[in-house]
Every structure is written in C-alpha cells, then in structure tokens.
Write a structure and sequence with these properties.
heterodimer; A: 389 residues; alpha+beta; nine-stranded antiparallel β-sheet; 17% helix; B: 141 residues; Alpha-Beta Plaits; four-stranded antiparallel β-sheet; two-stranded antiparallel sheet; elongated
C-alpha cells in the first residue's frame, strides 16, 4: 500500500470546526479544486466535502409514540389520517411507513391510480406541525382495558417521533425505459412505449455514496443532514450490495450501497420530507439527505472529485424485463449524458427524465456546508464503516 | 402578430362544420391543433394555437363565436404552485408541448405557460401535486 502524504483524524477536523478554521466545500466545488491543485494539496487544504440528494426513498418511515390514554390502551391497530400504521410493538408505539396508502384509497382499481395520500404525506403533515387524526383499536387486557381511542395529535404533543428508514440514499440506480407498446406507470415514473423516454434517479456527482464509493468514512454514527434536521447513519441499509461491478476508478456501475438512517423527526422540516404520489405505483416520501465526507487523506479527496462523466449506470427495460426479474442491461450511460437531456441507445436518441432534484440536492450540500462553517455541526466518527465487499 | 392558445367548445349542432378550416381560408390565420376530442354526447373540444395579425385574429375569434363556438383562452388554465415544486423533473416525461422543461445546467424545471396545451397530463404526473387546473379561466374578449 502506498504511503499517504496527508493524514488527518476526525478529531483534527472537529477541532478546526470548533475553532472556525475549517474549510468546507460541496461535492461540486471540490471537482475543480482537485483538478487545479491535485489531490495532495486539495486534501491538505480542504477538511470536509458536503454531498446531497433529494428524491423519493420508499423504504422510509417513522416510529411514533403517541402517549398513553386513560383508561390505558395496548394498540392492536393504528391509523394516522386513515393511513394504517404497524402496531405490533408495545402499547402506544407504532411505525408509519412511507408507502402505506390511505385505507379507503381505490389503489389501482382504475388504472393508473393516483395515490393522493399515504404514509409519506402523514410524515410530512406531522413535521409541518399539522394536526393528524389518530385512531387506535385494541382487544383490551387487565392492564390495558381501553378498546378504542380517537383524537387529534400534533408532533409537539406526542412523546416521541423518530424517522427510521431501512434503505435510503442508494449508491447509483437504474435508468428505466419501456420497450413494450403500452405506457407503463412505474416507481421510476411514467415510461412511454417503445423507449419514448429514459428515467433516472440519482444526484450523480453530488450523491452521498458516489463520493465515498468504498464507504471509507461512512458507518454507524456518521452524522448527516436528514429531512432538514440532524440524523445519523445507523447501519448499512437493506439490500446494501457493495460487490457489484465497478468502474476501474472504483465507482459502482449498478445499484450498490445503501444507508440505514435515523433522526429526531421533531427537529426536521416539511421542505425536506415531502409526501409524494407516484401515478399507478403508490405513495412515497421524498427525503433530503446529505453526508459530510471528512477529507482524511488524498485518496478520499480524489473520490469526492468524481464527475458525472465518470459515473455510469445501466439502462433497464421496466416494460418486460424488470417485472419478470430479468436484470439485463440494454446499455451503459453516464450521468453526464443523462443530465444533458438525451441518451443514445442502439442508435436511437431518447429523451431523459430526472426524478431526483438536483436543485434541492445542491441546497442540501450548501446547507450542510453552512452548518459546519458556523460550527453548529461536527463530524460523527463511525464505530465501524459499512461493509465494502 | 397575435398568438394564443385557445380552447374551443363546439355544441353538438356545430361539430360537422369546417369552422377551423375557414379560420385559415377566410381570416388568413395559422393554426396548430394541440388537442381535439368529441365527447359521447357529440360536443367537441379543441385546443389550438392560433396566430396571425391582430385585426384578423380578432375577426377570426368573432367568427368562431358567431358559429356558436365557446371560446376561452387557455393560457391561464394550468398553474404551478411554485412552493410545492421540488424541481425533480418527473413532469417532463409527459408534457407534449415542452411547456415544462429543464433549464440546464441549473436543472431547474421551468413552466412556460404560453406553450401549455392544457392536456392535463402533468396534474397526476407531478409527484407532489404542484400542477393545478386553475378555475380562473376567463372568457376571451
């Protein structure tokens, strides 16, 4: 292993944050710095690179403790604004998942369904401070005799609300097309027939896990921007798969790593947790997520300097292949091509459609940078980093 | 030159007449049909972009009204609630006229109401429901 010329510790960087001497730039700003000054000089000068992403993340949800009633109740079934929440935990705890539709939603009975309100919207309403209607039913026990309560709750008045999402911030994602003759309504958006459009969903060079492709700085305890507040990476996300094929520089060419995230919902903001309705598919939650990458050495800063031109993904047919479990790639495209508005697939030019907001991703990275510069946010040193394969 | 997107509603009795053709022949107006439907009860709806010199444009619209066609401007009918828009870009998959497009390199989603044909596809394509049909559509002239 070659000797690293720059070696900084989390403590060194946190001391600089506290003293106000820290140098923080975004994952877009670092590109030119490394290009002009080289990785060693850049690593000496820059302490933190901030990343950001804002997109629907279906595996999101929140634990809500709605407090005890008199007489007491052990919830069997819970609804928040008519959206069912999972109640198979202790008395007044429940988990509201982002994709749970409202109980009286007609779903896809008239296809494509509109899915106007679901778990993601409940979370956004709670965070916005709106009153949410709580309904609880129970079978009654000696210690918890109550069989039903109905009341309005607000985030201020409940004991706990914790965002806890088993899979966020996918490192890379498929580019979706539809090769059938009919329009398809997918979680990757509306796909017109005969590859009428190509949809993709990643912030590319701004995306958290693209800036630390081998998770050298990310793991349990990494402090992050989550939903407008402060959160943590608490585990590898479900389906975390670091062993996919990578480019020679080490960046995954397919969906790879994921993050398990957690944070206090009471400190979050409705601009960064937005309930979404995906036509013909269902409800979800768009999450603002940003990870600060500590520049511990020149190797790490080199990774953060990655550009959209060097990041690739696979084009997958969501008309036939994907629903049949076939993961055949129709071609490889770079994020620079995807962001340009057109890709070429087998001599055909296809218009691209993003689903991940670059405008908001930039704002996440900028906000995180601002917090660190003000000394309000220090880096969390991970207890262990995520499995890198 | 005047150029506007108009919504024309034809009563059942008028759908057989070559009204739009006459607009071009008698009033020298250029038209581009953006949407056309005949409903089960035989009333017709057409959205078209009409352009020509101001005087001819006014005469043409008067002619339409004389034929019993209900004329409304379309340019106010779809609105974006800017506060709700997250600039994701999902709407650009369905917008047929390019009224919703992405400004590069900023990647900001722009809504150019002048190009909107009121097809309403964006209403449910927008994940945050930022696109709304505005009730403020007013009668033309």
């Amino acid at each position: 292993m070659r000797k690293l010329k720059v070696q900084k510790s989390y403590r060194d960087i946190n001391d600089k944050i506290k003293s106000g001497d820290v140098v923080v730039v975004t994952a877009e700003e670092i590109i030119d710095i490394v290009k002009e000054e080289g990785p060693v000089e850049a690593a000496r000068r820059v302490d933190v690179v901030t990343t950001g992403t804002f997109a629907p993340m279906c595996s999101s949800g929140a634990f809500i403790n709605f407090g005890h009633a008199t007489p007491t109740i052990k919830a069997s079934k819970v609804w928040l604004n008519k959206v069912p929440a999972y109640a198979g935990i202790a008395a007044v705890d429940c988990y509201i998942g982002a994709t749970e539709p409202c109980e009286d939603d007609p779903l896809n009975k008239v296809h494509p369904g509109t899915f106007n309100y679901g778990g993601g919207h409940v979370i956004q309403d709670l965070v916005a401070g709106k009153k949410v209607h709580l309904k609880v039913t129970a079978y009654g026990t000696d210690c918890y005799p109550n069989r039903m309560i109905e009341k309005e709750i607000a985030i201020r008045s409940i004991p706990n609300a914790v965002l806890c999402s088993p899979r966020n911030g996918y490192q890379n994602y498929n580019c979706a097309v539809n090769l059938t003759n009919k329009t398809k309504y997918t979680y990757m958006g509306i796909l017109k027939p005969k590859a009428g459009n190509a949809n993709y969903c990643s912030a590319g060079q701004l995306s958290p896990l693209f800036n630390d492709p081998y998770y050298k700085t990310i793991g349990l305890g990494t402090r992050i921007f989550l939903g407008g507040g402060v959160g943590y990476v608490t585990w590898a996300g479900t389906q975390h798969n670091p062993s996919v094929k990578r480019s020679p520089a080490g960046f995954p060419l397919r969906p790879a790593g994921t993050l398990w995230t957690m944070g206090n919902l009471k400190e979050m903001h409705p601009d960064w947790l937005v309930g979404v309705s995906i036509l013909g598919y269902g409800c979800s939650l768009a999450v603002g997520l940003g990870v600060p990458i500590p520049i511990l050495n020149e190797e790490i800063v080199q990774y953060t300097a990655v550009t959209d031109e060097e990041l690739y993904t696979q084009v997958i047919d969501y008309g036939n292949d994907y629903p049949n479990g076939v993961s055949k790639s129709l071609g490889e495209v770079s994020y620079a091509e995807l962001k340009s508005g057109f890709i070429t697939l087998k001599d055909k030019t296809i218009r691209t459609v993003p689903l991940s907001s670059i405008v908001k991703a930039r704002k996440v990275a900028e906000t995180l940078k601002d917090w660190i510069l003000k000394g309000e946010f220090t880096l969390g040193e991970p207890q262990f980093t995520l499995p890198a394969g | 030159m005047d150029s506007k997107i108009l919504i024309l509603r034809f009563p059942k009795t008028e759908v057989q007449k070559p009204v739009v053709c006459n607009l071009a022949r008698k009033y020298d107006l250029t038209f581009n049909i953006l949407n056309a439907t005949i409903f089960p009860r035989e009333e017709g709806l057409m959205v078209l972009e009409l352009s020509g010199p101001r005087k001819k444009f006014k005469e043409g619209v008067l002619y339409l009204k004389d034929q019993g066609v209900n004329v409304k401007t379309a340019s106010q009918d779809i609105k974006r609630i800017d506060k709700k828009c997250t600039h994701c870009g999902a709407c650009t998959a369905v917008c047929p006229t390019g009224a919703l497009y992405i400004q590069r390199p900023e990647m900001v989603v722009i809504f150019d109401q002048k190009k909107c044909s009121i097809c309403e596809l964006c209403i449910f394509a927008c994940p945050t429901r930022a696109m709304k049909i505005s009730p403020s559509a007013h009668t033309f002239f």
